[in-house]
Amino acid sequence: MRNLFFYGVILFVVAIASWVGLEFYKANQPKPVVLQGEIEAQSYSVSSKVPGRIAKVYVKKGDYVKVGDAIFSIYSPEVEAKLQQALAAKQAAQAKKEQADNGARKEQIKAAEEQYKKAKAAADLMEKTYSRIKKLYESGVVSQQKKDEVYTKYQAAIHTKNAAYEMMQMAKKGARKEIKKAAAAQEKVYEAKVDEVESYVKETKQYAFVNAEVSNVLIHSGELAPSGFPVVTLLDMKDVWARLNVREDFLHYFPMGKKIKLSIPALGKSYEFQVSYIAPQGEYAVWKATESGKGFDMKSFEVELRPLKEIPNLRVGMSVLVEVR
Prior knowledge:
Blueprint: H1 2-27, E1 33-46, E2 52-57, E3 64-65, E4 70-75, H2 77-102, H3 106-138, H4 144-173, H5 177-203, E5 205-207, E6 212-217, E7 224-225, E8 232-247, E9 259-264, E10 269-280, E11 300-307, E12 319-324
Antiparallel strand pairs: 1-8, 1-12, 2-4, 2-7, 3-6, 4-5, 6-8, 8-11, 9-10, 10-11
């Protein structure tokens, strides 16, 4: 009986000693470090090259849109006015081309002569005006700026007169092949101008260019939208990744292409991810010196990991955790 008691005491002492030793061993083991990151997704901004007032926003936060769905429209009277101007200029160019092709009538010749006389009279007047201003400038009465302005107007009047003269000659002699080609080319120029303005008109209504979720509406109906400023932002939840900030002494746990299980507390599960991107961060993060007395500080790296399969109910901003030792 005494032997059983004696052996029992010995076993108890051994068990206690083993437990103390195990706890001491655990206490001296390096504790795991939990790295925390978050889920991110590809973001897109929907904006317009045309500034104006938002006429209507067709979506709201949380909506899922497909390619081609209307996002917003802009009311821009300036663009409409430019379109009307371009159409009018195109019509004028077409008329000039027809005139070059058909030749001038007597009334047109007479009108061209009168136009030339008018331009010549204006040029003669500007010549006299410039001559007077030049003398006043030399006398110190007017500034160089005023003299230059009058000279510019004088030169413009001369060019207008010359253009009117050429138009008169063309009307009298009939259009040459070169004139017809020039008229045809001018018509194409204004056709291109109309196409350009019409492209801006198309910009007044924007459509989804990717299947995505509306994450935010930055400008609402009735508000002014500057050119290129995002009106609506989209998130492509099919293109997601986890981003971690990793101290460089832990970076060897994250080689490119390595598959790592990350815990997502919001979903209560762990999922397999693969390292897809590693890059140093812009600034040094002071953690600790590698050796006592040394001034070298650890640098942080940005590590991105992409899920190997689609994760249901995953949302941007969810935390991800991983243990490293």
